[in-house]
C-alpha cells in the first residue's frame, strides 16, 4: 500500500543563510533593517508565495514602500537571498536510504523559481512529487497546502509522515491525520526513521 514521506526544504533538507544576506545588504545600501524585515514578511510577501503576485510585482511594491530601495539593488538582493541555501548532506544521504515502498514529497514555500533552486542545490529528481506554494495557491503553515499534498499523492493522512522544524506546520499537518516528526538534526532524524523501519541501516 502506498506510503508517503513529506519533507520541508529550508531548515530540514537545506540550510538557509537568509539573515546573513539581509544583514549584508542592509549595511551595503544603508537600508533600515527593521523596516525591511517588516515589509519582506508582509501580506504582499504571502501573496507572492501563494502565486497571487509575481516577483516583479512584489519588487516594485517593496521599492515603493521603502524610500531608500532601488529596483536594481532589490533585484541584486533577491537573487543572492534566494540562493543563500546549501543542502544538508547528512539529510540528503538519509533520503537516499529510504525504503522504496515510500514515495517522497517536498512541501515548501517558494517565489516561483523552485526548479532553479532545486537544480542549484543538486536536488532535482530527488522527490517524486513537489507541493509548491506558488503553484497550489496556499502557503505553509496553512492546512490547505497539506491537503494539497494528500490530493497530489492520492492518499489519506494516516499513510503520510511529515518532517519539518516548525511546530505550527507540524500541528496543522497533524490535524489531517498526518504523522508529524519534528526535525532537530540529522542524527535525531536517522534514529527516528530507523525506529520506524523507514531507512535501510548501514553496515
TrEMBL record:
Coiled coil: none annotated. It comes from the Bacteria. SUPFAM superfamilies: HAD-like (SSF56784). Keywords: Hydrolase. The keyword Glycosyltransferase does not apply. One of its GO terms (molecular function) is hydrolase activity. The keyword Hydrolase applies. This is Hydrolase of the HAD superfamily.
Amino acid at each position: 500500500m502506498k506510503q508517503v514521506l513529506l519533507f520541508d526544504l529550508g531548515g530540514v533538507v537545506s540550510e538557509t543563510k537568509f539573515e546573513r544576506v539581509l544583514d549584508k545588504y542592509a549595511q551595503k545600501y544603508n537600508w533600515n533593517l527593521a523596516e525591511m524585515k517588516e515589509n519582506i514578511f508582509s501580506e504582499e510577501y504571502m501573496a507572492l508565495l501563494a502565486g497571487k503576485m509575481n516577483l516583479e510585482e512584489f519588487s516594485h511594491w517593496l521599492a515603493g514602500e521603502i524610500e531608500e530601495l532601488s529596483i536594481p539593488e532589490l533585484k541584486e538582493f533577491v537573487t543572492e537571498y534566494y540562493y543563500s541555501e546549501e543542502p544538508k548532506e547528512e539529510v540528503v544521504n538519509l533520503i537516499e536510504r529510504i525504503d522504496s515502498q515510500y514515495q517522497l514529497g517536498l512541501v515548501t514555500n517558494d517565489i516561483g523559481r523552485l526548479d532553479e533552486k532545486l537544480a542549484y542545490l543538486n536536488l532535482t529528481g530527488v522527490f517524486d512529487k513537489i507541493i509548491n506554494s506558488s503553484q497550489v495557491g496556499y502557503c505553509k503553515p496553512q492546512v490547505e497546502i497539506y491537503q494539497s499534498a494528500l490530493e497530489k499523492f492520492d492518499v489519506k493522512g494516516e499513510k503520510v509522515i511529515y518532517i519539518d522544524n516548525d511546530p505550527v506546520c507540524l500541528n496543522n499537518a497533524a490535524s489531517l491525520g498526518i504523522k508529524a516528526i519534528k526535525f532537530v538534526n540529522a542524527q535525531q532524524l536517522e534514529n527516528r526513521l530507523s525506529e520506524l523501519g523507514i531507512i535501510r541501516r548501514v553496515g
